[in-house]
Amino acid sequence: MTQTQQKPQLPKFFLVFRIIAPILFVIGAILIIVSCTALAEYDRFSNLEPSLGCLFPGVICVFFSIPFTVIAYMPNIQRTMVKTSKYIMETSRDDLTDIATTGAEIGAEATEITAKAMATGVKEGLRDTKFCPECGREIDRDSKFCPECGHPQA
């Protein structure tokens, strides 16, 4: 028997916020409109002043409807982010492979150069040398004369 894979059900928390958020927004917008039109009063300079008794609660309702909407649709936002990340990874796979291959080639070349330098250093370190007391050039320990200045060696 094969079991059909069901989509996980969205928690009720998100569903409640999907209902509350638009209701809050509509109530807030209505309160703001009413406070700026029907309940507005003219001051002594003929300037229209909205009713703060409705304006303030309207702004609060609209303000809280925004994060409630984000919370309500968070699972959808996360799914979209995952799909976008997968798409970016798929479309840039060749570029990433090229970068990794180039990095590996550079690493191999650097390792080879380092190994050769170390081998040369070890070989030169194992050579038995001394310095000419006259000119200071490094010469073989068994040299009779300095190849630089010709000074006889002891």
In short:
This protein is mainly alpha-helical. It has a domain at 12-72. The protein is 64% helix and 6% strand.
Write out key terms for the chains shown.
two-stranded antiparallel ribbon, 4 strands, 154 residues, 4 helices, single chain, elongated, mainly alpha
Beta strand count? 4
**Could you give the order of the helices and strands?**
HEEHHHEE
Strand order of the largest sheet: 1-2
Structural class by SSE content: mainly alpha
Main beta sheet: 2 strands, antiparallel
Low-confidence stretches: none
In whole angstroms, how far apart are the ends? 96 Å
Helix content estimate: 55-70%
- General shape: elongated
Average pLDDT figure = 84
Tell me the radius of gyration.
41 Å
Strand content: 5-15%
Summed up, the helix count is 4
Question: What topology emerges from the helices and strands here?
Answer:
Blueprint: H1 12-36, E1 41-42, E2 48-49, H2 52-72, H3 74-91, H4 93-126, E3 129-131, E4 138-140
Antiparallel strand pairs: 1-2, 3-4
Helix pairs in contact: 1-2
